[in-house]
Amino acid sequence: MLISKGFFARFSKRRRTLLDEVLQSAKVGDKMELTFANWRRAMKSAGYSEMEAAFIFQKYDRDGDNMLDFLECRKMREDFSLGLAFQPMDSDDEEKTKDTESTNLDSNKDVFADREDCEELNERIVQVEEGMNNIVRQISSIIGNIERTERARRENEHALMKGII
């Protein structure tokens, strides 16, 4: 079935924000997996057709088990935020994506960060926060000096004006 990219772009622009809501209404959050039945039910309640629901689901169901796992749901969310949900993948892109995803899945089954990486990132964040706090303190000190200088200037100006009058 050949459908033009313009057709998909029209749907993508018109319903882009609704797709995020459909994904939320399908209750993906805690389970980290989505069945086709739940997806179809959520899409139908949002006013989408059976064909649209099946198209989007099949686009992201890489292993063909009629269930989107965590990685597939994450890819779907990313595409929804970019507005690419209804755009068909080119055959070359699809082959490249399948190859890279299969090697990524085989080489790294754990999708969460290592504890050491998290600790290192936390240390970097603390260092950046300390640097920002030092900068804010220096700026506050400079502003305080400027205010004292301005106050002294006004007092001197006031004393000079009293001497003249």
TrEMBL record:
<dbReference type="GO" id="GO:0005509">
    <property type="term" value="F:calcium ion binding"/>
</dbReference>
<feature type="region of interest" description="Disordered">
    <location>
        <begin position="89"/>
        <end position="108"/>
    </location>
</feature>
<dbReference type="InterPro" id="IPR011992">
    <property type="entry name" value="EF-hand-dom_pair"/>
</dbReference>
<feature type="compositionally biased region" description="Basic and acidic residues">
    <location>
        <begin position="95"/>
        <end position="108"/>
    </location>
</feature>
<feature type="domain" description="EF-hand">
    <location>
        <begin position="48"/>
        <end position="83"/>
    </location>
</feature>
<dbReference type="InterPro" id="IPR002048">
    <property type="entry name" value="EF_hand_dom"/>
</dbReference>
<protein>
    <submittedName>
        <fullName>EF-hand domain-containing protein</fullName>
    </submittedName>
</protein>
